[in-house]
Amino acid sequence: MIPGLSSRRRFKDLSEQEILALAISSEEDDARIYRSYGEMLRADYPDTAAVFDGMATEEDGHRHRLIELHRARFGEVIPLIRREHVAGFYNRRPVWLIENLGIERIRDEAEGMERDAEAFYLKAAQRTSDAATRKLLGDLAAAEAGHQNRAGELQAEHLSEDTRAAEDRQAHRQFVLTWVQPGLAGLMDGSVSTLAPIFATAFATQDTWTTFLVGLAASIGAGISMGFTEAASDDGELSGRGSPFKRGIAAGVMTTLGGLGHALPYLIPDFWTATMIAFVVVFVELWAIVWIQNRYMDTPFFRATFQVVLGGALVFAAGVLIGSG
What we know:
By secondary structure, the protein is mainly α. It folds into two domains: about 5-160, Ferritin, core subunit, four-helix bundle (Ferritin), CATH 1.20.1260.10; about 170-325, no CATH class. Helices cover about 75% and strands about 0% of the residues. It has helices spanning about 15-40, 45-75, 95-100, 105-125, 130-160, 160-195, 195-205, 210-235, 245-260, 270-295, 300-325, and strands spanning about 10, 85. It has a two-stranded parallel sheet.
């Protein structure tokens, strides 16, 4: 049996009072999530934050009406039952899991929250034979549909096309500064700087395992160094480049991957097979760097090609010549 599953109630076994209590706790949780989104976005996207503030207020209003209904039907004591207590009930992703994925992802998550709740209540209403319970679930579904409509009204009220376009540009810029720029620097460093030691070792020893070990050490070492350097160079407060931890992760991981790309083929025992595959990997890596520079950094294609491919070719040639000598 799956751990924890036996402790969950089935929805069809809940009483009408428990269903109402579940709706109350769900509305409370959603209001808290919307307020968290608003606080998280307020500094950089105040208009979108105002939308989430309004949605939280709407959830509070529905919760108050549900509490009044519970008080009228069942009294003051509301049973403690939450989403995680009910098998098959829709779950909400933690705020910390969404907050790093950008403003559009947060908007999509909010829309999905309302759709999930509405769909759940509609299906639940269809499965029950009790008229009162069916009406209750139908009312909850209508309330969630009303949330979606109200969310659209709030966006129209607070987010004009120009405002939303400006926020999207800011989000794109922040994504580039926090993730793409340090990641690109790491990929370039890892791909280019490890060419010489890896191919010098390869042609000097013609031993694929030794070459792989040298490449692995160079890649991991460069990744650690690049990650710490990026994180320590700028705390992001004045430059607006974002969290040093995120930038350090982006730079360190991409540096390591850039070096490992042409080190991994040397796990193949045959030297020339491994080397030919490593040549192809290097070619792909360098053109990937050119594409990223052109796509996200607005570097002209031919300039990026000249800088990256020529620089990589020189480092590669140096490694081959040193190793062959």
